[in-house]
Design goal:
Elements lengths: L1 H24 L9 E2 L5 E2 L21 H12 L18 H10 L1 H7 L14 H4 L1
Antiparallel strand pairs: 1-2
GO molecular function, one term: ADP binding
Organism: Dendrobium chrysotoxum
Pfam families: NB-ARC
Length: 131
């Protein structure tokens, strides 16, 4: 039993090391948002309506299959190694939900990309700080 726990701990350490390497390689800087209280936890300054994308049930999604397939095709079948794909639309039409479904797709998660990360972009944002 102890050996199994030790193996799991080592696997977690390896995963953390890999994530840290990716973070450094791609210049991702971890920052805390919100204000700190006495206990050290953070509380958001406002509620981000895009967080709803994390809680939408698959059965509630209508008309997302074709756009999801198109985005996956753009990501996987192009010779360019670095690219930016912009998803535009009016507020609350499902852009974040669509992007999250593409990000979670088994083709994407299943190893097509060496490293991937999901980040929430605050509104409004500073492009220089974000990059």
């Amino acid at each position: 039993m102890r050996h199994e726990i030790a193996v799991k701990i080592q696997e977690l350490k390896n995963r953390i090391g890999h994530i840290s390497d990716c973070r450094l390689r791609y210049g991702i800087v971890a920052t805390a948002s919100g204000s700190s209280n006495i206990t050290g936890s953070t509380t958001p300054d406002h509620v981000d309506h895009r967080l709803g994308a994390f809680f939408v049930q698959e059965a509630q999604l209508v008309g997302i299959d074709l756009p999801r397939k198109k985005l996956i095709n753009l990501l996987m079948h192009d010779e360019q190694h670095l690219r930016v794909i912009i998803v535009l639309g009016m507020a609350r039409l499902g852009k974040t939900t669509l992007a999250k479904r593409v990000y979670e797709d088994p083709q994407i998660v299943g190893g097509y990309f060496y490293c991937h990360a999901w980040t929430n972009v605050p509104q409004p944002f500073n492009l220089n700080v974000l990059l």
